[in-house]
Write a structure and sequence with these properties.
The chain is built from 13 helices and twelve strands. The protein is of the alpha/beta class. The strands form two sheets. The protein has a six-stranded parallel sheet, with helices on both faces.
């Protein structure tokens, strides 16, 4: 018998509905994860799909709905664990909506970011969540928005014309300065790295404002190298001035982990001889010894918020742009202590 004659007929949604003793419309609602279907009915339809070997034709559904059920996400750095946590939040919401994520890494390059955005358009994504590369201007966003592509900014923003989900960076820095000042620290340094963008400026401005409001010198801002492997060696930059800092706030946890290694190599005890605070509070903060005190910016929550903003924007393109900023919280662990008596001299 020819192979074509031995092929089984394709199982349709009508077959599933009949097997589960429901209407085709109800079976369709189950596939689209509609909350209108009761739990018992949903289980019955899902069992029928498994029993019959039904495979949902997503391609045909996309053509009918004129949607791809995909969301583009463009981030600047996949080596930073912060972005992995952000993505987990995005994927949780996008997956619950019956969609999938197409991920792009701009490498913080405006040129590569432009290419990635065009690729997203070629794949007909329903919208894009983007953490803009440094030097991105509003005109970049506008050119894609004008073509009808829904956009949401995450972590960094370039224009109030578009939805934004981010963190209170300045507030987080203020919490860190408050904590160190309460421990007696007056000579506090801020270790920064990476390109300049909105989140960078908000952190730096927040440090200066917090220090000045307490009558402290805001000028101890040092810049460490971007390559992670070179941060430890840059710990010496903290001691180039006349008066050495007794505490350091770091731009992110990656910088804190690198400086911790460099300070250890100099024979300094973190939390005793010098205090250290990270920023972002990613999972690595708990694995460091002593455990890293860090400002939590809730990347998973930001990811979930950005994804929901995108879904809302896709369903209502004309709605007013929203700006949702998550509160930052200082998680106190073991890398901060009272100022050492020797440092007071």
């Amino acid at each position: 018998m020819p192979f074509e004659e031995r092929k089984k007929p394709r199982i349709t949604l009508i077959d599933v509905a009949q097997h589960a003793n429901v209407s085709r419309a109800t079976a369709s609602l189950v596939i689209r994860k509609s909350p209108l279907v009761g739990a018992e009915t949903r289980l019955r339809v899902e069992k029928a799909m498994r029993d019959l070997g039904y495979v949902y034709n997503m391609g045909a559904a996309r053509l009918r709905a004129e949607r791809s059920y995909t969301a583009g996400v463009i981030v600047p750095n996949l080596t930073n664990p912060f972005f992995a946590e952000l993505l987990s939040g995005i994927e949780a919401v996008i997956d619950a909506a019956g969609m999938v994520v197409i991920l792009g890494n701009s490498g913080d390059s405006a040129e590569r970011q432009d290419m990635m955005m065009r690729r997203m358009r070629e794949h007909s994504v329903d919208g894009v969540i983007i953490c803009p590369a440094a030097d991105t201007g509003p005109e970049f966003m506008r050119q894609f928005a004008q073509s009808g592509l829904p956009l949401v900014q995450a972590l960094r923003h370039v224009s109030d014309e578009f939805d934004y989900a981010g963190a209170d960076y300045a507030g987080g820095i203020a919490h860190a300065v408050d904590h160190l000042a309460a421990l007696g620290h007056r000579r506090i340094a801020f270790a920064v790295h990476g390109p300049v963008h909105s989140a960078y400026n908000e952190r730096v401005d927040g440090f200066r404002d917090a220090m000045l409001s307490r009558g402290l010198d805001p000028q101890r801002i040092i810049r460490v190298p971007n390559p992670v492997g070179e941060i430890a060696g840059a710990a010496s930059l903290l001691f180039d001035g006349h008066q050495q800092p007794t505490a350091v706030i770091c731009f992110n946890d990656v910088v804190a982990l690198g400086l911790s290694a460099g300070l250890h190599d100099r024979g300094l005890r973190i939390g005793e001889d010098i205090s250290l605070i990270g920023f972002d509070d990613v999972s690595d903060a708990e694995t460091m010894r002593p455990r890293l005190t860090s400002v939590s910016t809730a990347p998973v929550t930001i990811g979930q918020t950005a994804a929901q903003l995108l879904l809302d924007r896709v369903s209502d393109p004309r709605r007013e742009a929203r700006r949702l900023v998550m509160r930052s919280v200082l998680h106190i662990r073991q890398t901060c202590g009272p100022i050492a008596l020797s440092a007071l001299q």
